[in-house]
Amino acid sequence: MKENYPDGKADLFAAFLERIPVMLRPYGYMAQVTMQSWMFLSSFEKLRTKLQDNGAIISMAHLDNMVMRIAFGTSATVWQKQGPSTCTGAYTWVTLADIQDGKPNKFPPDNERNALASRDKFFRVGQDTMAVLPGSPIVYWLSEKMRTSFALNPSLSSIADLRQGLATADNNRFLREWWEVSFRRIAFACTSREDAARSGARWFPYNKGGDFRKWYGNQEFVVNWENDGAEIRVFGTEDGGRPRSRPQNTDTYFSPSVSWSKISSGAPAFRYYPNGFIFDVAGTSMFVESLDDHISLLSFSNSRLAFEQLSAIAPTLNFEVGQVSGLPIVQQLLDENLEFVSVLIDESREDWDSFELSWSFSSNPLVTDAKKQVLE
Length: 376
Fold this sequence. Notes:
Blueprint: H1 12-23, E1 29-35, H2 45-54, E2 55-63, E3 74-81, E4 88-94, E5 99-100, E6 103-104, H3 112-117, E7 122-126, H4 127-130, H5 144-152, E8 161-163, E9 166-167, H6 171-174, E10 175-177, H7 193-199, E11 203-207, E12 221-224, H8 226-233, E13 246-247, E14 257-260, E15 270-273, E16 278-279, E17 285-287, H9 291-301, H10 304-313, H11 321-325, H12 331-335, H13 338-353, H14 365-375
Helix pairs in contact: 1-2
């Protein structure tokens, strides 16, 4: 698979998508029913590019989970072999509601009322218009205005440095929740690796992603980074092997950041992290110069527009660095609501610190309010 189908090696069905067009005569057709993952995932980006450079989607029935009686979405696609094409394809979105007794309802809708109800199920889209999106995902349902925003605006990577962090290769060994270790051996608020090494501490705050939470929080873990991560760096070499850990992008460790959880069951949530954190591969982060720039990033990334854009290029809810970095920046959203976002960060911080999960916890807010009422 790796040698013969390098662009389809991620899954067996994708090898057929790569192989069959080679067997076709010019302007010949192929039709395949496959998993839908090739349409979106970054691991199939080269395959999508190859298919779109050498053929055109004539039609596609995009089938929701369980329509084919399996738990995953599928795509039934008809291709025509030709050179780079501006062909307009026909796309249909099919759900279980469109199926009765194992047979499809009438397509297309047979009256005006049904047509209005099903307007979001039928699309005619030019293949070249989807190519402007980062990674060229097959997102036929995207509006023309949204596609234009990708084409005309600079990407998020032009104003921020987006990075993946530390992969320890053994979290059970190197990670702890902060209350499991001696508080005196944790160094908070270090500003650089040199500062961390001088502290003599063993444990340092660790951004591991976590649950859905906007603005601030998810600060529960610490990582063993004693002596600039000496133990992590050599992990796996004890028997003469190669290091198993990957301390990536160490120049950004301990810098303030805006971060999000790589995998989500719903909408992404972006949070501010101050100085002092090492970050994980699942706590992917972006870095800018000043606090105001961080606030601007949060203003944009937690907006409804950013969510709609991400839903288009990452519909599987796996928010990779490459996908987030490709979001088109709308300058107006960067400049608006900065005071409001600062308040949201502060309120989210107060909320986080009001629970004993926070290392900055001082007292229960209910007890504090009761004391105030007594004094008054």
